[in-house]
Amino acid sequence: MTLLSRARRILASGAAALIALALVPLAPASAQYIDVPNPIVEQRADTAIYKHTDGYYYMTASVPDYKRVELRRSQTLAGLGSATPVTAFTAPSSGNLSGWIWAPDIQYVDGAWYLYFSASPSSSQFAQRLYWMRNTSADPTTGTWSAPQRLTTGWESFQLDPASFTLNGTRYFAWAQDSPSTSYNSHMYLARMTSPTTIDTATAIEIARPSYSWEMEGVAGVVEGPSPIVKNGRVFIAYSASATDSRYKLGLVSASASADLLSASSWTKRSTPVFQTANGVYGPGHGSFTVAEDGVTDILVYHARDYATPTPDALTDPNRHTRVQQLYWAADGYPFFGQPQATGSGQPGIRGQYSDKCVDDYDWNTANGALVKLYTCSTAAVQKWEFSYVGGYYRIKNLHASKCLDNLNGSAALNADVGLWSCNGGTAQDWSIVDQGSGWFSLRNRASGLCLDNYAWDAANGARLSMYTCNGVGAQLWRRG
Ligand code: AHR
User: Fold this and answer.
1) Is the dihedral of CA 180, 181, 186, 192 positive or negative?
2) I need a surface site. Which of 52, 225, 326, 416 has the fewest CB within 10 A?
3) Distance 277 CA to ligand 1 centre (A)
4) pTM of the entire structure?
5) Burial letters for 213-233: b for 16+ Cβ neighbours within 10 Å, e otherwise?
6) How far apart, in whole angstroms, are the C-alpha atoms of residue 237 and residue 332?
7) Which atom of ligand 1 has the smallest separation from the CA of 222?
């Protein structure tokens, strides 16, 4: 880069930065590099994590013997593993809740805490029915929980996996239930709540049923574990499909936030899974959404095993562990789940599909204009990238250089350089995630409209990175990890 072009660039970047600051949302109040050692809590499945205004995460989940509802809290996600659980309810030796207790959810509504879960009699352990309990203590790990009461859905059949959310002042309840109209194990339903303990059963609608082969693997058909999140003007509900072994996976339904959510026609279902077995993580599913400690970065909570074949069976095997990782937002405003990150920590780099190497601040260079290249993936800081969502785009900051991934010349030329520059909010540093399927994504630069590219398909250490016409080929496919 000549002195003149550098001067031009500095002037341009200064002007661009001023214009950019006027045109694009300011960077989030804070952003956070997400690298939580997974799994965070062993032998806890169907995990619900609720981040409260008191700064604590409150977590509940299915326990291996399905005989109690437990609760724990921590001020950090990583701290949940060492937090001491307290028991909110223990299955009695007889009666309607003496069998299995499944998939509790925790919510804070109108000044009180609620635990929702399904339970069955020991005489018929799959005869699951929904229940609620209330605790008016400020800290739900203390105080007293009310005795479980039925939460009726309008018809009696196998029902499980409670979830709820509020939108425009209306509280909605989502759950899974066996429909008398099909032989599938479960469909997914939504209804309005008239109180934290009452479903307006007259409003209940089916929002999804098994309709793809990937929802019927090892079972007649499973659509369960609804997990809602509202963002970008839409309501998204992730759900779990197929048997709870390595074939378990996430699907996604969504509706416009301005639509009538209680009209079945408002909901559409993605035709392919959005999150599934990969990288030594088997059967990821049935989780929830929360935010990181910064209160801004979206987090996906899910369970998975670290081996393929559960024994003696997919329900009795206790090793569905709780895991968390960053949830992203694709260019179309939909959530991008990516792939399960491998067990351990230190992986969230940007790993190329073709090269299996990671985007690296080469030579540990911290100067403006430093080139990024590919290098063998490691846990080194030069490969750690903080993805900050600024509404449609990400600013991707290298933790070693504390500088942002940048289309260095603001160029739209094919094979233009990509490197690091002081983070300035310019469009040369705005990258959108383009979902390329199976958890792979491409990164499209806002200034050039071109995609980060492993140029010349070079898989050697030090291989050049540039931008090229977005084509979705292996040289342009990346994953976190
Ligand atoms: O973990 C128990 C049950 O197994 C959950 O309620 C359901 O989501 C899964 O199929």
Assistant:
1) negative
2) 52
3) 17
4) 0.93
5) ebbbbebebbbbbbbbbebee
6) 16
7) 10
Query: pLDDT (tens digit, 9 = 90+) per residue, 419-458?
Result: 999 999 999 999 999 999 999 999 999 999 999 999 999 9
47 in contact with ligand 1, CB cutoff 6 A:
no
β-bridge partners, 309: none
State how far the Cα of 26 lies from the Cα of 306, in Å rounded to an integer: 40
By the 10 Å C-beta count (0-12 exposed, 13-18 middle, 19+ buried), 34 is classed as: buried
CB-ligand 1 contact for 159 (6 Å cutoff): no
User: Strand pairing of 298-305 and 321-326?
Assistant: antiparallel
Domain chopping of the chain, boundaries: 3-24+347-480, 38-336
Which CATH class for the 3-24+347-480 domain? Answer: mainly beta
Cβ atoms of 346 and 437 within 8 Å: the answer is: no
CATH number, span 38-336? 2.115.10.20
Residue 28 has pLDDT above 50, yes or no: no
To test the pocket of ligand 1, the residue of 128, 131, 224 to mutate (highest count of ligand atoms within 8 Å of its CB) is 224
206 is catalytic: no
Amino acid making up residue 346: G
Catalytic status, residue 224: yes
